[in-house]
Amino acid sequence: MAAAPFLLLSIRGEDEAADDEYRAVMRFGGLDEHTLRRIRLTHRPLGDIDLTAWSGVILGGGPYTVSDAPEAKSATQRRVEAELAELLAAIIAADFPFLGCCYGIGTLGAAVGAVIDRSHSEPVGPVTVDVTAEGRADPLFAPLPDTFDAFGGHKEAASVLPPHVTRLATSAACPVQAFRVGANVYATQFHPELDVEGLCTRIDVYKNHGYFAPETAQSLKDAARRRTVTHPMTILRGFVDRYARR
Prior knowledge:
By secondary structure, the chain is an alpha/beta fold. It has a single domain, classed as Rossmann fold. Helix content is 33%, strand content 24%. The chain has seven helices and eleven strands. It has helices spanning 15-29, 75-94, 103-112, 133-136, 196-205, 217-225, 232-243, and strands at 6-10, 36-40, 56-59, 98-101, 115-117, 122-131, 147-154, 157-160, 165-171, 178-181, 185-188. The strands form two sheets. The chain has a nine-stranded mixed sheet with strand order 2-1-3-4-11-10-9-6-7, with helices on both faces. A two-stranded antiparallel ribbon has the order 5-8. Helix 1 (15-29) runs antiparallel to helix 5 (196-205) and helix 5 runs antiparallel to helix 6 (217-225). The longest helix has 20 residues, at 75-94. It is globular, with a radius of gyration of 17 Å. The termini are close together. Keywords: Glutamine amidotransferase. It comes from Mycolicibacterium rufum. This is Glutamine amidotransferase.
């Protein structure tokens, strides 16, 4: 019997960034086009999702910001956020395997009552992440060193988590770099699918989206190339290995 595929939900409207994200999740997760299916939510509605048909759900990052005022959001973003809220409610209730990357902090955080705001934004580029004591006991984070480098860049973050949520990682500028709800529902602020080439692609695609001054794009790429980022991908591969089912 074939393994149930994983589902990647994408909020990237730009083909170059969306396709690069899909390839990266396949590469670092050890998946292919048969075992990782994709829905681009910017291009079509989510529709009905039968969780029993999937091994797990992965939500990619992108330019949406959950904490923005509703009137500042496009009709597409409002539709996507409503669909994701309904899906996440079902995922949380079932404690179904989920990994939200960057944007997942905002969407999953909002679903569980975390405070999501712009108090702890981080610039695009490398970030030093520290695993918490709770993270040391977590099956996806235990294989990581106590401190590791990752790539990120975000306008909003979780500043306060509710008591029933487990914080797994932190950084100097951002108190919540990863958390877990229940036993199987995860979100990371950094990108577990992102290597330096992928970051450079996103710098090119999003240089006019307000993450950084466009004229600094090359210096951001140069700074990223001076750091070695390999550990975050362990989380993505661990998620796939732990939850792949037949």
